[in-house]
Predict the structure.
Amino acid sequence: MWYKTSADIGFGQGFVSMPAAPASTQREQALSLLQRRGMMRLREFGEAGVTATTVSRLERDGAIVRLARGLYQLADADLDQQHTLAEVAKLIPRGVVCLTSALAFHGLTDQLPARVWVALDRKDWRPRIAYPPVRIVRFPAEQLAAGVERHLIEDIPVSIFGVAKTVADLFRYRRTVGEAVVIEALRATLRQRKATPADIAGFAKQAGVWKTMQPYLTTLTSDG
């Protein structure tokens, strides 16, 4: 059972789940946890017996930094170039990185999306996140579960749609992301051989965009 403490006042989401250990021990434990896990939510500190007060002091002392509301990392942590995706994975654990954000992760575009595209089930609660900027798109449950890969970024497991699935989804959202982006993604995927035409076609049929994609896929494979 969770209990709020007086230390939580003005600290948002602070919780503790067990009697507090000495401050010095908590400080060492918090730093050790962050070294192992990369990033932690405030509630995860609470589960480990580290109070909100200790976390606040560590932030004030410059030992850790707050990346977003309730999300922390060591101040001197080595940041992966995909750092933002790891942040989003911690803040939206049920989400899957999709569309142009997945495309950029797989090295199939030079464009860096202004927001992280995240797919959620239609029934999932919409998270309120000020930073990093995200754009939520709703997927049916069966499509949300298909083609998902798990990648470790800064030791954080991040769910990202695979290449073939991403290309198919881009055709679904072609009016949103732009047809030029979609066609170039398909061309780059085939040129770099990051997915087979059969795999792409399979996901396109599942997404209901095969009739739209087929002429492009046929032309590009014929040219190749």
Observations:
- The longest strand covers residues 116-121.
- The radius of gyration is 21 Å.
